Structure formats: C-alpha cells, structure tokens
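Response to reviewer comment R2.3. The reviewers asked that we include at least one raw input/output pair. We reproduce the pair for Methyltransferase here without editing.
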Amino acid sequence: MASQHDVRLLDPLAHDATPEPYLPAAGKPWLLPLYDPMTRLGGVRRRHARLVALSGIAAGDRVLDLGCGTGNLALLVAASVPGSVVTGVDPDRPSLERAARKARRRRLPMTLVRGYGQSLPLPDESVDHVVSALALHHVAPDARAATAGEILRVLRPGGTVTVADFSAPDEHGRQGGHGHRLRRRHDHNAGHALADGNRDGGIVQLLTGAGLGGAIVLEHDRLAGSSLTYVQARRA
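Raw output as returned:
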C-alpha cells in the first residue's frame, strides 16, 4: 500500500516575486471549499471518467494532468490505472494542497507541482500521456500557443494528449461561467471571452499548430448547459 510519503507537493514558484495571473479552479479563492461538491453535483466526475477511458492510459504509463486543480482527474487516473505514475501541475497552491490531502487520504501516490502550462516544470520527453479537463479555457490567449508547445516538449515520441474542454465559449459565459472573471483576471487581455480559442475546432488547431499529429475530435458532450469537446493528438 502507498504511504503518505508517496504524495509529493513541490512548489518551485514559492519565491517568485512576479507570479503570472491565473484563474483558480473555482474562479474565486473563497469558493475553493465548494469546488469539489459543485463539480460532483454538476457531473464533472463522469466526464473525467470518460476522458480517462478515451486516453488509453495503461499500467506503468507516466501521466501529466495539466491544470489539475484540486486533483480529481489525477486521482481518478491513479485509482483506475494501477501502476500509472501521475503528476499534476497547477498554478494555484491552495488547490494543490487540497489535492495532496485527498491523495494521502486515499493512499494514491502522485507528485503535485505548482507551475504554469506555458512553462511546465517537467523534463523533455518525460511523460507518455498528457490529460487536461476543463483547464484550457483558463489559459490566457497569449499563453495558449506556448502551453501547446510545452505539451509537445514533455511528451515522449508516440505519446498522446487528450483534452476535454468547453467549445462554445459565449454560451458558457452568458450563463455566468468563468468568462467574466477571466476578463477581469487577465487584465493584459481585457475583453477576451471564455475559451474563444476553443471555438470552431480551435483545440484541434492549437495542438496541430504546436506540431502534434493526428489531432481529432473524439466526442462531443454537454456540461452545465454548454458544449464540451474531447480532443486527442499524438507526438510523432
């Protein structure tokens, strides 16, 4: 059985004097205690399970959960694919601390690292799979291309990335989603709508533009009244 020492929380940004702006998992820090109950009631766990099934992760694979938040997707990978080696990266320290507590309670080994998608704190060609659920729409427009490039960099040849994210940004934003908060948080990109870059095949285009091959839409779904798209690509 795993021990608590199998869960590592690393913070290479602890002394960063000029942190990048970001939107935490719940949108606002004070909402974090409600995030897990809200996502559970909203059906996010079922979408996580579908993402894991589509990803093709196998025992022994090294997996990065990009934008892991409170760790629900990373925990599901660790629990459902025994022997997988899971790392979660997120810029929000309180979310990572919550993820670490849950992993220790469930005795699921993993490494949680504070970092940004556009500068992942992982070595080149170090993971077999990148998974990301409902995180890409948190990335500022001017960091999206760099984030996709980092996915390419950390994937080993033949490795895959599987993403689930909103693909109808205006619809989610009108319903009071993250769109308005994103506009306020990313002052240097004031006026951008939630997940504008995901519209009209934007996720496929983003991954293809980074040099990943065979990017395709696997499935469409609905979540919180908005369109959700599952996309997968591979490093040659």
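Residues 170-193 have pLDDT under 50 and may be disordered. The chain has one domain: 4-12+24-234. Further pairs are available on request from the corresponding author.
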